[in-house]
């Protein structure tokens, strides 16, 4: 495995949604093989946190920025049904739509309002897509809006930069206003086993009021 990953550099260097879309469009075909081959740990740990807190059969799950559908595939194996997904990149969605088991997938920029009803989902998940150049902090308001009271919003952040991001302020604001409560968080862990030793993640679980 290589230590300097060109695709990751393009993604981390994206400064807006257009640059992010372009980076993922060019990476889509090899995304699963390259990421999983490099020991990408976020999907597995994220899915474990979903299984810990979201009871099967309590409602649909919305997988925001679902990419190629790795999370959806894992949830299906665990017996979850009615999984919705969206992503900024049409090329990534081509892989998420089939054979990955989503009820529906569609292109969407998380900087815009979600085309979903209030209080619809038992959980909203978002992995690998929060931070500079990716989904803006205001998407958290939409995640809360479409989650049922008592449901969960589960996401990861890059741990080494989280305290410096506007995202943390939004997360704290939602706690301070009583919109959600932090109920669980993972330890900080390396995002990849085999590359990028300085890139770390942490998964958070919030329960919506």
UniProtKB/TrEMBL annotation:
Keywords: Methyltransferase, Transferase, Ubiquinone
Keyword Methyltransferase set for record: yes
Biological process annotations from GO: methylation
Keyword Transferase: yes
MF annotations from Gene Ontology: S-adenosylmethionine-dependent methyltransferase activity
InterPro entries given in the database record: Methyltransf_11 (IPR013216), SAM-dependent_MTases_sf (IPR029063)
Gene3D superfamilies in alphabetical order: Vaccinia Virus protein VP39 (3.40.50.150)
Domain of life: Bacteria
Entry-linked CDD domains: AdoMet_MTases (cd02440)
Pfam families registered for this protein in UniProt: Methyltransf_11
Domain Methyltransferase type stretches: 63-155
UniProt-listed PANTHER family: METHYLTRANSFERASE, RHODANESE DOMAIN-CONTAINING PROTEIN
Protein name from the UniProt record: Ubiquinone/menaquinone biosynthesis methyltransferase
């Amino acid at each position: 495995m290589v230590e300097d990953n060109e695709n990751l550099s393009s993604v981390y260097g994206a400064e807006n949604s257009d640059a992010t879309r372009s980076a993922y469009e060019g990476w889509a075909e090899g995304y699963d093989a390259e990421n999983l081959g490099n020991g990408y740990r976020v999907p597995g740990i994220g899915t474990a946190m979903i299984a810990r807190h979201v009871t099967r059969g309590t409602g649909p799950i919305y997988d925001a920025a679902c990419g190629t559908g790795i999370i959806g595939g894992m949830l299906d194996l665990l017996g979850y049904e009615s999984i919705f997904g969206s992503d900024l990149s049409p090329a990534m969605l081509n892989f998420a739509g089939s054979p990955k088991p989503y009820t529906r997938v569609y292109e969407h920029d998380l900087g815009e309002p979600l085309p979903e009803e209030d209080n619809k989902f038992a959980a909203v998940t978002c992995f690998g897509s929060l931070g500079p150049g990716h989904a803006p902090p205001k998407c958290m308001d939409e995640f809360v809006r479409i989650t049922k009271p008592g449901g969960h919003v589960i996401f990861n952040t890059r741990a080494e930069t989280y305290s410096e991001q506007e995202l943390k302020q939004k997360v704290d604001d939602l706690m301070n206003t009583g919109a959600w409560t932090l109920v669980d968080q993972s330890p900080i862990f390396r995002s990849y086993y085999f590359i990028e030793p300085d890139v770390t993640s942490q998964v958070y679980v919030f329960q919506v009021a």
